[in-house]
Specification:
The protein has seven helices and seven strands, in the order E-H-E-H-E-H-E-H-E-H-E-H-H-E. By secondary structure, the chain is an alpha/beta fold. It has a single domain, classed as Rossmann fold. Strands 3-2-1-4-5-6-7 form a seven-stranded parallel beta sheet, with helices on both faces. Helix 4 (112-140) runs parallel beside helix 5 (161-182). The longest helix is centred in the middle third of the chain and has 29 residues, at 112-140.
């Protein structure tokens, strides 16, 4: 359907490493978008992986996108990358903040450095990228920002307090930013919208489910009797990026196999 066609759109997926970043980027490419990607840090292994993701996007039809290796918590590095992408590829129409790391550790065993790292890679990275892209989207009067948020933002799980705090920060940021940037002149079909995809326990994604023993329990506890796949998010990210979601703003679209409803 044309309302879900992303042909002619330029999408930037930040923190495009691992199964989660790959699925989101490739899903956008398959819907017709030109997809650019970034790493989370300047780690060489992340650079190799994000280049692999970019190659898969090209194969899916998302041509001409670029890869940038940078530290997502460094405003100067992010600003330089965004400026280069807008100059060399196209204005960024869609920003997907996909950075998603999880510190599974008891609070009493955690340090202030652990706390700062968790907030930095999961929340500060979203702020920095959104600010850099947003200062270009807002004057243009349209754009899509989509943040990835774990269900642990409001569901208590042992040893996940630091991770949960970072996810709550991202969701609060999403809801307020949606109001701040959604305003504009009346009778305009498009705006800068800011939404989040809430994810449950996913295969290949950082979280308590990475422990095989926990994953085994979850297979029996989850209403759909399986962990989610990152590919299960592709429909939601395309929907939120496309014209079909013009009136969706400040929302959390939950893809979790109904675990949030489980007693």
């Amino acid at each position: 359907m044309s309302v879900f066609d992303l042909t002619g759109k330029h999408a930037l997926v930040t923190g495009a490493t691992g199964a989660l970043g790959r699925a989101l980027a490739v899903g956008l490419a398959e819907a017709g978008a030109t997809v650019s990607v970034t790493t989370v840090t300047t780690d060489r292994a992340e650079e190799v992986e994000s280049n692999s993701i970019l190659n898969e996007c090209w194969a899916a039809g998302g041509k001409n996108g670029q890869q940038k290796t940078l530290d997502l918590t460094d405003p100067a590095a992010v600003e330089a990358a965004v400026a280069a992408l807008e100059k060399d590829v196209a204005p960024i129409d869609i920003l997907v903040n996909a950075s998603h790391g999880a510190n599974i550790k008891p609070v009493l065993d955690s340090s202030l450095a652990d706390w700062s790292r968790e907030i930095g890679r999961n929340a500060t990275a979203v702020f920095v990228a959104s600010q850099s892209v947003g200062k270009r989207m807002v004057p243009r009067g349209k754009g899509r920002i989509i943040n990835i948020v774990s269900d642990i933002h409001d569901r208590g799980v042992p040893n996940c307090a630091l991770f949960g705090a970072s996810q709550g920060a991202v969701l609060g940021f999403t809801k307020s930013l949606a109001i701040e940037w959604g305003r504009g002149e009346p009778l305009v079909a498009e705006r800068v919208t800011v939404n989040a995809i809430g994810i449950g326990f996913m295969e290949g994604v950082p979280g308590p489910q990475a422990d095989p023993a926990v994953a085994e329990v979850l297979h029996h506890y989850l209403p759909l009797r399986r962990l989610g796949s990152p590919k299960d998010l592709q429909g939601a990210v395309v929907f939120l990026a496309a014209e079909g979601s013009n009136y969706v703003n400040g929302e959390l679209v939950v893809i979790d196999g109904a675990i949030a409803n489980h007693a």
